[in-house]
């Protein structure tokens, strides 16, 4: 099931073919016409919420209610709700928002694909940089947080940040947390995964420090594209999901979550120690090789000999997975500092 957030009121919808269905409205119609519910709208708001995090928190009951609503609507020639409102919308006629609420968090794994880190090490001659890369790979999981309040969605333009000349892309797969999790064991983490989505972890590569200000290079308006929806499918193996990045149609990254150094289960165990993960939180698993930063050679001073693989205004960037769909953004504005 593909769970989307759509329209001006940011309602939960289920993508069916080329349409998106307002399942809260469809479930209210089902309750009104097929049951003896006294307050069908109130019951629908509780059982199949229109708000994403409430829908996620409702768990299997919300998914079951959504399936009931879809089955009912497929048999009903009238696709309008109890008050005559539209319930089925063509995908090409609505706005899909990033499927994350503002109060949720994006935990992004750092240095979590060995091939990405090895490629970066191979392309630098600076001993200090090599030591830093080795330190990032060694030991337990490492992560940073991206601000969910300023995420971008599939189809959005991404404004080139003025503070950089070196804007980079990172194709990633993220798991969506389905219930409160604290101090969980890695072996139990699978039951806390509600679904999966794509993330483009946009990154600034100028003068990156892996100290306290590292997050400055990872956070700016639009710095995480999330979507286009959340795939809820228990048959998916979180450690066997392919992901690719294309720049202007050229494949730059092609990887699979099976190559993650620390699995989603290990990340979940680490992040939940003494801290609660909440329904709707995302854990993004890191990126494989093929980013501009790991594909470009740096000299002994850490400067890029050729920065042509970094993004330019007008570039079209697509992150895709055969299991999850695709998100596409166009870079707008001007490359900072370049005349």
Automatic annotation (TrEMBL):
Keywords for the protein's UniProt record, in alphabetical order: Hydrolase, Metal-binding
SUPFAM superfamilies: FAH (SSF56529)
Domain Fumarylacetoacetase-like C-terminal: from-to ranges: 106-331
GO MF annotations in UniProt: hydrolase activity
Family of this protein: Belongs to the FAH family.
PANTHER family: FUMARYLACETOACETATE HYDROLASE DOMAIN-CONTAINING PROTEIN 2A, FUMARYLACETOACETATE HYDROLASE DOMAIN-CONTAINING PROTEIN 2A-RELATED
Protein name: Fumarylacetoacetate hydrolase family protein
Natural source organism: Rhodococcus jostii
Taxonomic path: Bacteria, Bacillati, Actinomycetota, Actinomycetes, Mycobacteriales
């Amino acid at each position: 099931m593909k769970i989307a957030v759509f329209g001006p009121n940011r309602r939960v919808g289920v993508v069916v073919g080329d349409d998106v269905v307002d399942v809260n409205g469809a479930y209210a119609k089902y309750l009104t016409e097929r049951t003896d519910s006294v307050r069908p709208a109130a019951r629908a708001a509780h059982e199949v919420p229109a708000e994403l995090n409430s829908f996620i928190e409702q768990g299997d009951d919300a998914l079951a209610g959504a399936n009931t609503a879809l089955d009912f609507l497929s048999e009903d020639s009238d696709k309008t709700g109890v008050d005559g409102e539209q319930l089925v919308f063509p995908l090409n006629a609505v706005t899909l928002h990033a499927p994350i609420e503002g109060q949720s968090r994006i935990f992004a794994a750092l240095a979590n694909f060995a091939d990405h880190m090895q490629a970066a090490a191979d392309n630098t001659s600076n001993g200090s940089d090599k030591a830093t890369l080795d330190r990032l790979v060694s030991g337990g999981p490492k992560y940073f947080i991206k601000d969910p309040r300023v995420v971008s969605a599939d189809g959005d333009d991404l404004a080139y940040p003025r503070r950089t000349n070196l804007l980079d892309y990172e194709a990633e797969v993220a798991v969506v947390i389905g219930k409160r999790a604290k101090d969980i064991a890695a072996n139990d983490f699978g039951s806390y995964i509600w679904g999966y989505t794509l993330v483009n972890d946009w990154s600034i590569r100028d003068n990156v420090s892996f100290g306290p200000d590292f997050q400055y290079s990872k956070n700016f308006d639009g710095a995480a594209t999330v979507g286009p929806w959340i795939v809820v499918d228990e048959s998916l193996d979180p450690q066997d999901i392919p992901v690719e990045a294309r720049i202007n149609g050229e494949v730059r990254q092609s990887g699979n979550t099976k190559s993650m150094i620390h699995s989603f289960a290990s990340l979940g165990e680490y992040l939940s120690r003494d801290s609660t993960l909440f329904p709707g939180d995302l854990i993004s698993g890191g990126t494989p090789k093929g980013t501009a930063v790991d594909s470009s050679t740096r000299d002994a001073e850490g400067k890029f000999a050729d920065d042509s693989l970094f993004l330019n205004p007008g570039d079209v960037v697509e992150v895709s997975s055969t299991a999850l769909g695709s998100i596409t953004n166009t870079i707008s504005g001007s490359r900072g500092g370049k005349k």
